[in-house]
Design brief:
elongated, single chain, six-stranded mixed sheet, 6 strands, 4 helices, alpha+beta, about 40% helix
């Protein structure tokens, strides 16, 4: 009887361990979190997903910025244009990386926006964002 109880307890612990591993095997956040931040123009939230450096393309000018520089650039851009909404047109993934193409509607213009995220240290990070005026 004692062996039977021990086997049941071990089985429960193993199944619980597999379930815990499975539920935590995903990334802490995904491109959906970035889309939520984009939709409200919340740069503070968006910057949580930045890689160590972020490539930003604005007005046909592209540059690579540190996390803090990228935050300043996007705060200025979102403040100047006033974000109204962001709508996904297409999204996909490949080998743990994610991307999406969407339309950023602002008070003054619409921008085709492309977002690239990549897996680093078991989490998705935003590496590149492009804004092309429609």
């Amino acid at each position: 009887m004692k062996n039977y109880v021990i086997k049941i307890l071990l089985s429960v612990l193993m199944v619980g361990g597999f379930a815990f591993n499975y539920s935590n095997s995903g990334y802490p956040y995904s491109i959906e979190d970035v889309v939520t931040a984009m939709n409200t123009g919340n740069v503070n939230q968006l910057s949580n997903y930045f890689d160590k450096v972020v490539e930003i393309t604005l007005h046909d000018k592209s540059n690579t910025y540190s996390r803090s520089q990228a935050e300043i650039i996007l705060k200025d851009f979102f403040h100047s244009y006033g974000v109204k909404a962001f709508r996904i047109v297409h999204k996909g993934s490949n080998s743990g990386s994610e991307f999406c193409i969407g339309n950023l509607q602002t008070k003054y213009a619409a921008f085709r926006t492309t977002i690239f995220m990549k897996t680093r240290s078991r989490k998705q990070v935003l590496q590149e964002i492009r804004f092309e005026e429609n």
